[in-house]
């Protein structure tokens, strides 16, 4: 009887994944799914208590380092340390982010810059740090966590929307530059997922939640694991001919009906 290959094409047994903002929410869901698929995972973030709790939950094959991705000059030393202690990174998930709900006219340059630094400059610094090793081995995947805010207009999130839109441009440029070297670069654009960040974004705004449900064909919020398993697909051999793509995981919200 022929041995089924279905599980193997989604296996991450040979992968070593770095996930930013991996201690909670969507980042932790990605860590959980990738770990379940066989990957070794390293979580980074600013809150050690959350990271330690996440690693304890994941078990063997997981670790963490406290790191602030806005400290751009620290990206290369971080990757060097991880490589020395745990081996080279084969997959990078740029998930860390901050949210700012504020009218565009009231958003200050300092607030705008803080959002851009976290989502764009921090992600770029880590990509620069991991890519040389990936190029040398001719193997690697980079996943950006985009957003519905990068696909259509959402009020009161001008800085966040700008950052997530810039992220899509960055991934497509990187895909054209690095895909020939065996590095695939893609993004996931989650819709409205039940996380602490999404709940905070809708605090005191029940009409907004109702509007989201009404314009989502599946008429519900997603689960963080929906994004986690999408990340497994993009990091696995199952997507070996997929690069430069933005995968909506949104219950149909981006169809624009």
Automatic annotation (TrEMBL):
Which SMART domains does the annotation name?
PKS_KR
Classification via PROSITE patterns: ADH_SHORT
Q: Which residues cross the membrane?
A: 142-163
Among InterPro entries, the record links this protein to: KR_dom, NAD(P)-bd_dom_sf, Sc_DH/Rdtase_CS, SDR_fam
Q: Which GO terms describe its molecular function?
A: oxidoreductase activity, acting on the CH-OH group of donors, NAD or NADP as acceptor
Q: Which residues form a coiled coil?
A: none
The Ketoreductase domain, residue ranges = 15-195
Keywords associated with the record: Membrane, Oxidoreductase, Transmembrane, Transmembrane helix
Its protein name is Short-chain dehydrogenase/reductase SDR
Q: Which organism is it from?
A: Opitutus terrae (strain DSM 11246 / JCM 15787 / PB90-1)
**Taxonomic lineage:** Bacteria, Pseudomonadati, Verrucomicrobiota, Opitutia, Opitutales
